[in-house]
Design goal:
This protein is of the alpha+beta class. Helix content is about 50%, strand content about 15%. It has a two-stranded parallel ribbon with strand order 1-2.
């Protein structure tokens, strides 16, 4: 993973920690939905916040929908933040 991304995630985690919530970082390779689902339970996750590319129609069908899979297969809440349409 890019060092810039790791630095950014560490900074965001520290900002959240100062405000109260605990943030765990999990770095994994593989199918995104499966890796997120597998990581949620051992970490006793209360909330998964994730972005959405806003794919529709055939793109969503062919590429899948990570946020939908995660929301369907985890026992915690999932917050999906949609990107702005350009």
């Amino acid at each position: 993973m890019n060092r810039h991304v790791l630095t950014m995630l560490e900074r965001l985690g520290n900002q959240f920690a100062r405000q109260g919530p605990t943030v765990d970082h999990v770095f994994a390779q593989g199918d995104p939905a499966e890796r997120i689902i597998r990581a949620a339970d051992p970490h006793r996750t209360d909330l998964i916040a994730m972005g959405s590319k806003g794919l529709t129609g055939l793109e969503r069908y062919l590429l899948g929908n990570v946020s939908r899979k995660v929301a369907r297969h985890t026992s915690c809440s999932v917050l999906v933040v949609r990107s702005r349409r350009r």
